[in-house]
From TrEMBL, chain B:
<keyword id="KW-0472">Membrane</keyword>
<dbReference type="GO" id="GO:0022900">
    <property type="term" value="P:electron transport chain"/>
</dbReference>
<feature type="binding site">
    <location>
        <begin position="37"/>
        <end position="52"/>
    </location>
    <ligand>
        <name>FAD</name>
    </ligand>
</feature>
<feature type="domain" description="FAD-dependent oxidoreductase 2 FAD-binding">
    <location>
        <begin position="9"/>
        <end position="404"/>
    </location>
</feature>
<dbReference type="GO" id="GO:0009061">
    <property type="term" value="P:anaerobic respiration"/>
</dbReference>
<comment type="pathway">
    <text>Carbohydrate metabolism; tricarboxylic acid cycle; fumarate from succinate (bacterial route): step 1/1.</text>
</comment>
<keyword id="KW-1003">Cell membrane</keyword>
<dbReference type="GO" id="GO:0009055">
    <property type="term" value="F:electron transfer activity"/>
</dbReference>
<feature type="binding site">
    <location>
        <position position="387"/>
    </location>
    <ligand>
        <name>FAD</name>
    </ligand>
</feature>
<keyword id="KW-0249">Electron transport</keyword>
<keyword id="KW-0997">Cell inner membrane</keyword>
<dbReference type="GO" id="GO:0050660">
    <property type="term" value="F:flavin adenine dinucleotide binding"/>
</dbReference>
<feature type="binding site">
    <location>
        <position position="254"/>
    </location>
    <ligand>
        <name>substrate</name>
    </ligand>
</feature>
<feature type="binding site">
    <location>
        <position position="353"/>
    </location>
    <ligand>
        <name>substrate</name>
    </ligand>
</feature>
<dbReference type="Pfam" id="PF00890">
    <property type="entry name" value="FAD_binding_2"/>
</dbReference>
<dbReference type="InterPro" id="IPR036188">
    <property type="entry name" value="FAD/NAD-bd_sf"/>
</dbReference>
<feature type="modified residue" description="Tele-8alpha-FAD histidine">
    <location>
        <position position="45"/>
    </location>
</feature>
Length: 93, 587
């Protein structure tokens, strides 16, 4: 099941907004974030989702460094979500 | 129901480097400026540029704008317009120092001057020793430029319409461009933005091809808006491909990997480049390697379940060398493929990188079209700059570091011309309601309900067709089939419908309109490529392997409404110096 199918309709709107926030200036980010939104996002709890939204406010270059493993976040919530996105990229289903 | 109308002196569509540089110049000249961007400005594709921007500063090695000009003309395979190239190369140092002033943190030498690195295609003394011409802010030059320009624009009170999607240009009966129709992605509400002058700075169209390095937003929207407004696209057959992209994903694996001793393998485990280039082998030029990969796949020697890629072998280099010399490549492979190149070869396919063609302009950024006997008549009120435009400084092939330069120089030049025009045009021309109605009709077309194909499916199909029929392997037969296939997809798009008709943040609607734009650009590209019966720069044809200056030293123009081609001369005369006549292009 993908994210869309598992969310209540009230959440669908929020998800659409997130989807557009995942459109970035770099292909790498598009691919990582899109796959995550499809397959991983729904597995996050409320706190994880809030962290993911916060992560999307980061500049593209910082986000890329985090997601490529070139930089570690000292914020444990962020580090956790980043690791989850990386795992999802490798094993999308 | 009335549509909201806003009025500005200048409307800039696109908030990448080109759009923001223009906006800043205008805002600083006290013009009222609106910038429309479908994504938040600092998420524009310019952010992806890492390498740097070229300018003959001579900080590291001797240099001059004239040598830079020669390299650019040669790089363009003599299809670049030499007046625009001279203008760009002369303006380069100034533009870079301006960036420094705007706050871009360029990497520096010990003496405090801007550091410059050497890139391929850069020479001293007109083709002799290597030059060092590229200025960079570490490996985040695009990011630094975009963020600095954005901050400066906020300070200068540029008005931003963030996450608004531009639909169509508004033109009156006399051919004046009066602004554009856009809609707010958040609410789904359309808005008319009237402007005395409009600049298209919407970037390139890398998303035309299944395997590409470009972000998903690069769908050629501005190019397609121009086509629909009756403006041709120029030189669309020239698309820069890189031979080694990650198959199915698109990201670049730099030439460095083969430079360090990596080699390509087919499904039989054969080092096939030995057959195509017995001497240079895996280090042969980009187009030779790209075509060899295509041929291996086409002839059934591709790898994987679909036999649709080849392999780049690095394992023999050993852990230490890969960790030391190619760490970035390793990270990319681990992140996107879950495989470590220390232990496994990398799946590879040629990847589309840069759109040399675009909306035809002169060196003032004015959009120009042929009218009767004049090949370049300005369209009143309309400008274009950046990767969306074709000015044409890149001609048949772009040099690394020249596109950031292009977007800055011509974003600025267009703004200067606009400032001039605004001085003499104090009032808006009356809005032409039929143009608004036509644009609204196109916008509302996606409200249609019922059965129909999925937008996403059609986009994927289109990209596959373009890769197979207008990629690196071009023959009459392959491309003629491509034209037929793109046209068939265009017909199916007319019947496509959205599943979701809600208004708020309906990204499906955005994607549907992007698909329409991609289809227009696809047909322009494959028709232009089919038309050009020679090989030049990035356009290389198996059936016409040579450059033919007698017949083809000219620009292609593709018109949507008549689905036809026309040609116009290359501007071989520079502004002040002697022209560089065509020569054989060897490096
Ligand atoms: C991976 C990569 C690395 C690169 N590295 C370099 C380098 O080192 N040096 C170099 O010189 N060049 C480099 N390039 C090329 C260079 O980055 C681009 O050519 C350049 O950034 C294009 O800038 P632009 O302003 O024309 O467009 P973009 O930065 O693409 O901006 C386009 C803007 O238009 C907006 N837009 C598009 N359609 C619409 C619409 N319908 N409605 C509203 N807004 C819209 C977008 O939101 C965006 O703001 C690289 C390219 C890639 C892919």
């Amino acid at each position: 099941m993908t994210t869309d199918e598992q969310l209540a309709s009230s959440d669908v709107e929020a998800l659409r907004r997130l989807r557009w926030s995942c459109r970035r200036g770099m292909l790498e980010l598009d691919l990582l974030l899109e796959a995550f939104l499809k397959h991983g996002f729904v597995k996050l709890d409320a706190r994880g989702r809030e962290t993911f939204e916060r992560l999307l406010d980061y500049p593209d270059t910082t986000l890329l460094q985090l997601l490529m493993g070139q930089m570690q976040s000292s914020d444990r919530d962020v580090a956790h979500v980043v690791e989850f996105i990386r795992q999802t990229a490798r094993h999308p289903s | 129901m009335g549509v909201t109308v806003r009025k500005f002196d200048a409307l800039i569509i696109g908030a990448g480097g080109a759009g923001l540089r223009a906006a800043l110049q205008l805002a600083n000249a006290e013009a009222s400026v609106a910038v429309v961007s479908k994504v938040f400005p600092t998420r524009s594709h310019t952010v992806a540029a890492q390498g740097g921007v070229n300018a003959a500063l001579a900080n590291v090695l001797p240099d001059s704008w004239h040598w830079h000009m020669y390299d650019t003309v040669k790089g363009s395979d003599w299809l670049g317009d030499q007046d625009a190239i001279e203008y760009m190369c002369r303006a380069a140092p100034k533009v870079v120092y301006e960036l420094e002033h705007f706050g871009v943190p360029f990497s520096r030498l010990d003496n405090g001057n801007i550091y410059q690195r050497a890139f391929g295609g850069q020479s001293q003394h007109f083709g002799k020793e290597q030059a060092a011409r590229t200025c960079a802010a570490a490996d985040r030059t695009g990011h630094a430029i975009l963020h600095s320009l954005y901050q400066q624009n906020i300070r200068a009170k540029t008005h931003f319409f963030d996450e608004y999607f531009a639909v169509d240009l508004l033109k009156d009966e006399e051919g004046y461009v009066l602004g554009a129709l856009a809609f707010e992605i958040l609410t789904g509400e359309p808005i008319v933005i009237e402007a005395k002058t409009t600049l298209l700075a919407t970037g390139g169209v890398g998303q035309l091809f299944r395997t590409c390095t470009n972000a998903l937003i690069n769908t050629g929207d501005g190019m397609s808006m121009a086509l629909r407004a009756g403006i041709p696209l120029q030189d669309m057959e020239f698309f820069q491909f890189h031979p080694t992209g990650i198959a199915g994903r698109g990201m670049l694996i730099t030439e460095g990997a083969r430079g360090e001793g990596g080699y390509l393998l087919n499904a039989d485990g054969e080092r096939f480049m030995e057959r195509y280039a017995p001497n240079a082998k895996d280090l042969a030029s980009r187009d030779v390697v790209s075509r060899a990969i295509y041929t291996e796949v086409k002839e059934g020697r591709g790898c994987g379940p679909e036999k649709d890629y080849v392999l780049l072998q690095l394992t023999h280099l050993g852990r230490d060398k890969i960790m030391q010399r190619l760490p970035g490549i390793r990270e990319t492979c681990i992140t996107f493929l879950g495989l470590d190149p220390i232990d496994h070869p990398i799946p590879i396919y040629p990847t589309a990188h840069y759109t040399m063609g675009g909306i035809p302009t002169n060196r003032f950024g004015q959009v120009v079209v042929p009218v009767k006997d004049t090949p370049e008549d300005p369209v009143p009120g309309l400008y274009a700059a950046g990767e969306a435009a074709c000015v044409s400084v890149h001609g048949a092939n772009r040099l690394g570091g020249n596109s950031l330069l292009d977007i800055l120089v011509f974003g600025r030049a267009a703004a200067n011309h606009i400032i001039d025009v605004l001085e003499h045009n104090r009032y808006h021309r009356p809005l032409h309601q039929p143009a608004v109605d036509a644009a609204l009709e196109r916008f509302h077309r996606w409200d249609r309900k019922g059965d129909g194909e999925h937008v996403d499916q059609l986009r994927q199909e289109l990209r596959k067709v373009m890769e197979a029929h207008c990629g690196v392997f071009r023959t009459e037969e392959v491309m003629a089939e491509g034209v037929a296939k793109v046209k068939a997809i265009a017909e199916r798009v007319k019947d496509a419908v959205l599943r979701d008709h809600s208004k708020v943040f309906n990204t499906a609607r955005v994607e549907a309109m992007e698909l329409e734009n991609l289809v227009d650009c696809a047909l322009a590209t494959v028709q232009s490529a089919l038309g050009r019966k020679e090989s030049r720069g990035a356009h290389s044809r198996i059936d016409y392997p040579d450059r033919d200056d007698t017949h083809w030293l000219k620009h292609t123009l593709y018109f949507k409404h008549s689905d036809s081609l026309d040609y116009k001369p290359v501007r071989t005369k520079p502004m002040t110096v002697e022209s560089f006549p065509p020569k054989v292009r060897v490096y």
